[in-house]
Write a structure and sequence with these properties.
With 428 residues, the chain is an alpha/beta fold. The protein folds into 2 domains: 102 residues, Urease, subunit C, domain 1; 289 residues, TIM Barrel (Alpha-Beta Barrel), CATH 3.20.20.140. Helix content is 38%, strand content 22%. The protein starts with a strand and ends with a helix. GO terms for molecular function: hydrolase activity, acting on carbon-nitrogen (but not peptide) bonds. Keywords: Hydrolase. This is Amidohydrolase.
Length: 428
């Protein structure tokens, strides 16, 4: 495809007007102010459009779309134990398949090209991911509350399949990660066993870390160290890790994350809604910690519109720390794009640059909220809505365009999700 006469945000998120961008074989092949001589197939009219890298949602629980609006106005532990866990006990692979389809549809419509997910029911989830064409780093949520060995857990067999059968599927769009749900939902010996497996097979790790004050302080009481120090001591950070939330980091925790190259998946909407608190993002950025964006699940957000989290990421910390200079638009956009790609180990992605993957989204700028476009980056961060996304492309393949999907039957998916949620609620 050749995007013609289209405004772009370059590698530094600086606006360039009237550019031509050619994609070929899944890659960005040309960027310039003049039309190239080469034939790129379809020509896309870029008037009143802005082209930028697609977004990365680096912490989600996709099948939890089935729980949207169900577990509300409760602190995290009551939210989990009284609402979420009982509902999840009624789920199966078929429900997870349709729930994941719905999540992917929502993400594609908001410009998301890849997501990092932690959940169960991998047969259903992988089916939905592969059919859709989106990119995903998928991990199987692991929890254990007794003295079981890792090999005795259902998660162990699922992880063998994830790292073998599914890892690298669809030309690398699907990647298998390993997971520890959190310190408070695991045991030291299982944590060490998963860390050893990750090191042996070169897998990445996805965890929850210091999401709430209760979790953070209880870990200190149990182990005499913070969750970050605990995960370091048991080998989790010896492999590339995405740590979700990190709201209650303290003292040397920041140095630990920096030392090991841990990516923080910041989820501002979820953290605000569950009253978890404010992560010290300014300090993380000042230290050079890789900070990316996540929506969390649809039961705690309640949407998967990464643009909402982009906006909150850019404004919440200004208010909390009373400093309007914190989190520039460029830093926010980097967190939503390149930082997410790096967290997934996709080093050739997340940039609008020749030689990078053609993972792109197009925003309609002929709208009230984009008028006038005196600063395109500011407009995207502070004004853009999910409905402004007109096209989402993954590896050069258009998956969403002008309200329509090329790989998802949205009406069927919505009907299936409504049916399954109703059945589960009637059984609770």
């Amino acid at each position: 495809m050749l995007f013609c006469n289209i405004d772009v945000l370059d590698e530094g998120f600086i606006l360039k007007r009237g550019q031509y961008v050619g994609t070929r074989d899944g890659m960005i092949d040309y960027i310039g102010p003049a039309a190239p001589d080469a034939d790129y197939g379809e020509r896309y009219d870029g008037r009143h459009r802005l082209l930028l890298p697609g977004f990365y949602n680096v912490h989600s629980h996709a099948p939890m779309t089935l729980l949207r609006g169900y577990a509300e106005n409760l602190p995290l532990q009551r939210w989990l134990n009284e609402k979420v866990f009982p509902f999840e006990d009624k789920l199966d692979d078929e429900a997870a398949y349709h729930g994941t389809q719905l999540a992917i549809a929502e993400m594609l419509a908001c410009g998301t090209v890849s997501f990092t997910d932690m959940y169960f029911f991998l047969d259903g989830m992988t089916r939905a991911i592969l059919e859709s064409g989106i990119k995903c780093n998928l991990s199987r949520g692991l929890t254990v509350f007794d003295d079981s060995s890792y090999e005795a857990l259902p998660a162990y067999q699922d992880n063998l399949r994830l790292l073998g059968e599914w890892n690298g599927a669809n030309q690398g769009r699907l990647r298998g990660d390993l997971c520890i749900h959190g310190e408070y939902t695991s045991t030291p010996k299982v944590v060490e066993a998963v860390a050893a497996q990750a090191g042996a097979c070169g897998a990445q790790m996805h965890i929850h870390l210091s999401e709430t004050q209760e979790e953070h302080e209880a870990c200190k009481q149990r182990h005499g160290m913070t969750p970050a120090a605990y995960m370091q001591a048991h080998g989790i950070f010896d492999v590339p890790t995405t740590a979700a939330h990190c709201v209650w980091l303290e003292g040397e925790d920041f140095d630990i994350l920096k030392k090991h190259g841990v990516t923080v998946a910041c989820c501002p909407a979820s953290n605000l809604k569950l009253a978890s608190g404010y992560a010290n993002v300014p300090r993380m950025l000042d230290m050079g910690i890789n900070v990316a964006l996540g929506t969390d699940g649809a039961a705690s957000n309640n949407n998967l519109n990464i643009l909402q989290d982009l906006y909150l990421f850019a404004v919440a910390y200004k208010g909390y720390y009373r400093d309007a200079t914190l989190i520039t638009p460029a830093q926010a956009l980097y967190a939503a794009t390149r930082a997410g790609a790096l967290s997934q180990g996709r080093t050739d992605s997340g940039l609008l640059k020749v030689g990078c993957k053609a993972d792109l989204c197009v925003i309609n700028t002929d709208t009230p909220q984009f008028t006038p476009m005196t600063d395109a980056a500011c407009n995207v961060v502070y004004a853009a809505q999910g409905a402004d996304i007109r096209l989402t492309m993954v590896d050069g393949e258009v998956l969403y365009r002008d309200g329509s999907y090329t790989t998802i039957d949205l009406e069927k998916v919505k009907a299936e999700v409504r049916l399954r949620t109703s059945r589960i609620l009637s059984a609770l």
